[in-house]
Specification:
Radius of gyration: 20 Å
Number of helices: 10
CATH class of the largest domain: Alpha Beta
Number of domains: 2
Strand content: 15-25%
CATH architecture of the largest domain: Alpha-Beta Complex
Structural class: alpha/beta
Helix content: 40-55%
Length: 317
């Protein structure tokens, strides 16, 4: 069984196209879980039009964001379908995107034929969609993690198929309102043995100019980026004994984390932060010097100066 998880919030404009692409899959052993995350438009009525399908359920909840909606679906599946979870797969789909009719069939074949735990491919803007197909490589866990951290593999939840058991102990952090994928997907890679990387574009995303990720850096985006990077590096640090390339992974993440932290912190307007946001920022900034001392990751004079300024910011929050 392949479970397709779709969080829905005020998606009336594109939702029908999204759902039509799912029910048009050439592979039919699927079950679609849509989470209506407190929509206030006509999304709920659109969702109800698909209740004619037996392999489909609508879960309704109060608005809590995409992390909360995905967790709601994961908890529902693990509780209701516990008896088949070891032989099942997960696909995540955003409610304004669409799948090629061959997405599930192609990804599932690759996972089975290569004995992989995750299959991941490319994304293409829906306005310029095309399809090709092929296996690029199969990576062991450590190699896949490095590719993920270097953005050679997308950190999106979507564009992937996962063996369901990988998510048994993994949930999205609901206190991170942005970049929750960055703070989560690497954990499924840590649980995997092999990852198949496909040279194909079977997932089509909507290029939305109003997306919050397309706008300038704000308090919310800056703190989200920092939290996500801190989670990554802390988890890798805690797993050093079980990772063959721990030193390489940690050094790369530290350098990446340093640049993310030091580049985004200057965009934060401290006077506008809530008490909880100040606490998150304080936690992130306090963790940084300890990590920097642990490993030498030379960043150049520009970042050293930024770090000295960062110490001044710590005194203000």
């Amino acid at each position: 069984m392949v479970f397709v998880i779709i969080p829905v919030f005020n998606s009336e404009k594109y939702l029908k196209e999204c759902l039509d692409s799912v029910f048009a899959q050439t592979y039919k052993n699927i079950f679609v879980v849509c989470v209506n995350d407190g929509s206030t438009d006509s999304s709920h009525y659109i969702l109800e039009n698909y209740l004619k399908f037996d392999n489909y359920v609508i879960l309704n909840k109060n608005n809590g964001g995409s992390s909360s909606a995905r967790n709601f679906a994961l908890n529902y599946i693990f509780e209701k379908y516990a008896n088949i979870i070891r032989d099942s797969y997960f696909v995540f789909l955003d409610s304004d995107d669409v799948l090629s009719p061959h997405f599930i069939n192609s990804y599932l074949k690759i996972i089975i034929n290569t004995n992989s735990d995750i299959a991941t491919g490319n994304v293409t803007c829906i306005e310029n969609c095309f399809e090709d197909n092929g296996l690029m490589c199969v990576c062991e866990r450590e190699e896949a993690l490095l590719k993920l951290f270097k953005n050679e593999i997308f950190s999106f939840s979507c564009v992937k198929m996962y063996k369901a058991y990988l998510w048994e102990s993994v949930r999205y952090p609901e206190d991170i309102s942005l970049y929750e994928d960055v703070a989560t997907i690497y954990k499924t890679f840590l649980n995997a043995n092999k990852v198949a990387v496909l040279d194909c574009s079977l997932y089509f995303y909507r290029d939305n100019p109003d997306s919050i990720l397309r706008k300038r850096i704000t308090n919310k985006t800056a703190i989200g980026m920092q939290q996500a990077c801190l989670l990554r590096i802390s988890d890798i640090n805690n797993m050093q004994l079980s990772l063959n390339n721990y030193n390489e992974l940690f050094s790369f993440l530290l350098k990446n984390y340093s640049k993310t932290l030091l580049d985004t912190v200057w965009h934060i307007k401290i006077s506008l932060l809530s008490d909880s946001e100040k606490a998150k920022l304080r936690k992130t900034l306090n963790a940084y010097p300890t990590l920097l001392i642990k490993k030498n990751a030379p960043l150049g004079i520009k970042y050293f100066i930024k770090y000295l300024k960062l110490k001044l910011i710590l005194k203000r929050i």
